[in-house]
Design the sequence.
């Protein structure tokens, strides 16, 4: 059973990587806006990522427990470094350059928060969380510590600005809190409070973020500005129909109508060229990868491993669903990549490490 799960993790991850490389090659094919270097860079990342999966899959995952808090603190330093001296691009400051390498610390934040929460909640006694009716001070004490540190990461990421990743961190945190033993009604109460202050959050959004929300409600509000990308994306996906126009034959893609087609809107390329069948194959690969991840976490006896596994499965699920829904106009544009498909070294390598962690969990079922 264990070897079967290992094999499937490798198969479906590799399938996603191959589909991503084919889509990126098409997005950069004889194109002046998207350099062919994007494809070669991702090809290098694919080799490095699979090596990382292999190495992380063979090490003892409990070492992540030992470094969880240190790794989180180091990531906070990196996020501060972005705000103080990061590289600006496309109206945002999300990149940090060290030793000639450019990367996004916000991608590392996803793993850092998962590890930090996994270690914290693995030491919480479930009886405290399940028997605290009428003891709100205990609830606050159990929730304030993780929420404070998650909130700090969210704030630093939001300031870049990167609203999508900030909200994603919140979603992961709530799922892991529930998995850690916190009753759903307390999480529901927290969500109710957040929804209550949501109208006031409008005033702290950047102008382009407000435009994205308005365009989500009606793309034709600004068809040549903020709404242009989502309109072209929906045209691309819809024009693919059942079997698509063929690889390297998508008109929205090849004729440069579709912006950001190698990053956030890579699914539009797949939808146009491979059609409904290709999009369904992509979703099937994610579904199988997520299902195998859940099977692995269900069998893990160690609470830290289980919680981190749940966090990894959660972020993979949320990010894939949000990106695909965003491309089709079902969600606002929030700037989240499609795991293993979109171009992006930081995102690709972090997800490779996460898949390696799942492989590691499937091999070791020990208790601290």
Sequence:
């Amino acid at each position: 059973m264990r070897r079967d799960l290992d094999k499937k993790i490798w198969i479906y991850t590799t399938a996603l990587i191959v589909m991503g490389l084919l889509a990126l090659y098409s997005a950069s094919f004889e194109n002046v806006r998207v350099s062919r270097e994007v494809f070669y860079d991702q090809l290098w990342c694919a080799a490095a990522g699979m090596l990382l999966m292999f190495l992380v899959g063979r090490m003892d995952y409990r070492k992540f427990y030992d470094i969880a808090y240190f790794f989180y603190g180091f990531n906070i330093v990196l996020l501060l470094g972005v705000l103080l001296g990061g590289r600006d691009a496309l109206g945002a400051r999300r990149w940090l350059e060290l030793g000639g390498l450019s990367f996004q610390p916000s991608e590392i934040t996803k793993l850092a928060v998962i590890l930090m929460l996994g270690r914290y909640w693995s030491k919480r006694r479930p009886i405290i969380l399940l028997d605290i009716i009428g003891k709100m001070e205990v609830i606050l004490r159990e929730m304030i510590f993780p929420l404070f540190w998650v909130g700090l990461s969210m704030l630093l990421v939001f300031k870049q600005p990167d609203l999508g990743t900030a909200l994603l961190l919140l979603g992961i945190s709530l799922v892991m809190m529930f998995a850690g033993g916190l009753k759903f009604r307390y999480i529901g109460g927290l969500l109710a409070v957040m929804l209550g202050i949501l109208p006031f959050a409008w005033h702290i959004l950047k102008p382009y973020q407000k435009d994205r929300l308005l365009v989500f409600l009606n793309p034709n509000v600004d068809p040549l500005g903020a709404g242009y990308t989502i309109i072209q994306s929906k045209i691309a996906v819809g024009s693919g129909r059942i079997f698509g126009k063929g690889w390297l034959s998508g008109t929205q893609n090849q004729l440069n109508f579709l912006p950001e087609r190698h990053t956030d809107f890579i699914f539009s390329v797949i939808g146009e060229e491979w059609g409904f069948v290709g999009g369904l194959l992509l979703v099937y690969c994610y579904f199988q990868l997520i299902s195998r991840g859940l099977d692995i976490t269900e069998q893990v006896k160690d609470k830290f491993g289980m919680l981190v596994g749940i966090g990894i499965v959660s972020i993979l699920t949320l990010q894939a669903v949000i990106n695909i829904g965003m491309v089709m106009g079902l969600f606002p544009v929030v700037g989240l990549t499609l795991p293993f498909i979109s171009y992006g070294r930081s995102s690709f390598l972090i997800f490779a490490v996460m898949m390696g962690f799942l492989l590691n969990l499937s091999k070791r079922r020990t208790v601290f």
